[in-house]
What we know:
By secondary structure, chain A is mainly alpha-helical.
Amino acid sequence: MSAIKTAPENAKSRDIRNRWFLSLPALVIIFVAALGPLLVMVLYSFLEKGDYGDVKFGVFSLEGWTSVFMQRDIFDDTLGIADAHLAIFWRSIKLSLYTTLFTLILGFPTAYFIATRPARTREIWVFLITIPFWTNLLIRTFAMQQVIRNEGILNNLLIWLGIIDTPLQIIYTDTATLLGMTYVYLPLMVLPLYASIEKLDFRLVEAGYDLYANRLQVLWRIVIPLVKPGLIAGSILVFIPSLGAYVIPRVLGGGKNLMLGNLIELQFGAGRNWPLGAAMSITLMALVMIALLFYVRNAAKSGVRHG
Amino acid sequence: MAERRFDIRSQPGFGFIALFTFFALYLPIATLVAYSFNASDSLSSWGGFSLRWFASALENSTVQAAAMRSVIIALWAAGLATIAATMAALATTRTEPYRGLTAKYAVINQPLMIPEIVTAVALLIVFSRIKVWTGYSGLGYLILAHTAFCIPFAYLPIRARLESMDLTLERAAADLYATPWQAFRFVTFPLLRPAIIAGFMLAFVISLDDVVITEFVKSGGQDTLPTYMLGQIRRETTPEINAIATIFLAASTVLIVIFFFINRRKPQA
C-alpha cells in the first residue's frame, strides 16, 4: 500500500484542512456582507436603470458608465462632457490632496515632537492623539460645525479681536469641508509618522550635525528620507478616506459643495439612477486602488533602500 | 563651534505646532461638551449652566430606542466578529505559508480597503432586493453588515497576540496527552483572552460609531444613535443634540480607556 501518505505529510494536510475550516466563518461573513455585494454592484453598473430606482434585469446597457463623465443633451440627444460630475470629481481629488497636505504640515511636527519626548511622557501624548481618533467621526464633525458656524466661537473670537466686523461665512463652503477633514483625519497622519520617527536612529542626525549640516539640512536630507515609509503610510491613510468622505461634506459642506460620496448617494436616492451610482462607486474604488498601488510600489522601493 | 551642547533632537517651531495640534484637536470637542450644559434654548447664546438638556435627552423615547438599538447591534456584531476573527486568527498565524493564505488575508482585510460609502451602496443594492424577496426587514441586515466590517478590527489584536506566542506550550500540552481541544481550552485560550477581550471592545466601538453603512442598510424606523444624530444635525439644532453627543462621547471614551489598560498588560515574559 504505497499510496498511504507518510505520517508527517498526513498531519500537514489535516492541519491545512483544519485551517480552512477555522477561517470559514470570517470568509463567509465578509463575502456575504462586503465582497459579494461589490461584485453584484459591478453587474448593476452594466444594466439599464429602472423607472423608480433599481435596474431592469437582463437589459444590458452602458448608459451608467457613459454618464459618469458624459451627459446627453436634452434637446439634440448628443453626448457632451458632464461638467457637474467632473466638477465634483475634481473637488474630491483637490480637497483630499489639500487635506493630506494640511495634515502633513500639522502632523509631522506633532509626531516628531511626541517621538522626541522622554519615554514616560511619550505614552501620554500618544494617548492624547488616540482619544480623538476613536471618537465618533460624526460627533467630531458636529463639534467642528459648532466651532466654525457664523455664531460659533471662531467667528466670535475674530470679532472680539477686532479682526473682522461681520461673521465669516465658513460653514457650507469647501473651506469648511477641508477644515473638517483635516481635523478628523489628523490622527491618521500622526500615528504612522510617530511610529517611524520613533524608530529613527538619532546617531545619524548627530553625524549630520558633526558634518556641519544646519537644522534644515538635517531635517530635509536625513530625517525626512529615513521616515519616508511613515510619511507615505500616513498620506495614504488620510487620502483614501478623504476621497470617499460622505458625512463631513454632508454636514459641513452643505448642499452645493458635494463630494464624490454624496454624488454617489444622490444617484441611489433622488437621482434614481442605480447603474450610474454603481459605475461611480467603481470609479471611486479605482481611484483608491491607484493610490494603494502607488503606496505598495513606494513601500517596496524604500524597503529595498533602507534594508 | 560654541553651541555644541544643544539638543540634537529638537527642531525649532515643532513644539509650538505640536501644542497647537493638541489644542486644535480638543477645542471643538470641549466646545461641544461645554454647550451641552447650556441653559439656553439655542446654540447661539450662552444662558447659564444647566443639566436640562441631559434630562430631556434621557427622557426622549426616540433617543432611548436608538441608543438601545445601537447597543444591541454592537453587542451582536462584536460578539460574532470576535468569534469569527479568533478562529480566522488561529487559522492564519504560526504556520508555514500554504495555498490560499494570502487570499485569506486579502479577504479578511478587504472591508478596510474599500471606502465605506462604496460598501454601503453595494449593501443597499443587495439587501433591498433580499428584503423584497424574503419580506424580512429586521435588524439582521444591520448585524450582518456590522459583523463584516468589525472582523478586521477584532482580528488585528488577536493575531498580534498569537504571533508573539510560540507553539512550545501547546506542544508541551500535547506531550502530556492533551487533545488539541484540551490544549486550546486550557493553554491557548487563557493566554489569548486579553487579546480577545481587546478585539471585542474594539469591534464594539467600531460598530457603535458607524454612520454610513448603517444609514444605507437600515430599514424605516431603525435609527441607531449616530444615524439619529445625523438626521438631527441641521442649521438650527437645540443643545439636546450636544447632550446626546456628550453622553455618547463619555461612554466610548470609557471603553477606549479600558481597552488601553487591557492591551497594555504586557504578555507575561
